[in-house]
Amino acid sequence: MTQHSSGARAQLLAFTGGTLDRQSEKRGEDCIVAALDDPAARVLMFSGNKLVLRDAASGDNGQELFAASDIAFDPASALYLGRDAAGAPRLAAQAVFDPDALPSGLRLTDLRGLIAQGLVTGPALGDIAYAAALMNWHRANRFCARCGHANDIRAGGAKRGCPNCGAEHFPRNDPVAIMLVTRGDRCLLGRGPHFPPGMVSCLAGFIEPGETIEDAVRRETFEESGIPVGAVRYLSSQPWPMPHSLMIGCAAEALTDDINHDAEELELCRWFTRDEVRAMLAGTHGEGFTAPMHGAIARHLMEGWAFGQA
Ligand SMILES: [Zn+2]
Description:
Layout (H helix, E strand, L loop, with lengths): L6 H5 L19 H7 L4 E6 L2 E5 L24 E5 L5 E6 L11 E4 L1 H6 L6 H18 L11 E3 L4 E3 L6 E2 L4 E10 L2 E6 L11 E4 L6 H13 L3 E12 L4 E10 L13 E6 H9 L14 H10 L4
Parallel strand pairs: 1-4, 9-13
Antiparallel strand pairs: 1-2, 2-5, 3-4, 6-7, 7-8, 9-10, 9-11, 10-14, 12-13
The structure holds zinc ion.
């Protein structure tokens, strides 16, 4: 497997590069309480699935980091994320304010807006992805999947445990295959009905039970476009914490040209030349087609191919 893991290219993938030491093997059941007792602790605050940001950075803290005393939060929602490079504890929690009556100096952003607007960049986005995906999983898994009893946070959020039947449940990622399908000097892109006007992107879909990544690439590509796929090659991956996906980026070789696309899934699916993709990335495509936003793995795959780096 090859991976774009070095230097500037890796930084082009939003939600990667988190730096927290998760302390996975060192967590006691009191780790949240102990972390909150440390005045150096910093908390990523959420309101539902939105992140709370300051309007401006404050001292050494980025816009996304708060002391535990800065904002009231639900203590039962608190999750321990680990320690930062200086050894300070890092947590995530649900703020308790009314989102329609925000304290001054604060705002809420969904995570897509966070990267689209460049509000937070670099490794801090990786930490936010970790916090958001974990928070989203906990919010959706408050009852035991085995017996239905209310369960509770264990090991600071590394798992949930059921006091009724003893089952333990661990945070999950939902794997998604996303593929740049090519044939010669053309690549296959489509647009879903919910996309912003003009935008086209790589085909993608959830990996289903019993499938390899390669199986999912071939099945999804055929279902959406009618194109059979031969060789599949892994390129890179990206956490996508909406709510807790892992995007697995692949290059895939089409075996035929004739598209027979699923009109319910895609309102458009067609071949684009390398020059067209370069124009899309530059915002100068003659027919007005545009690429996905900066930071998204789909754009990363398109860039790698268009400029010969994939
Ligand atoms: Zn149970």
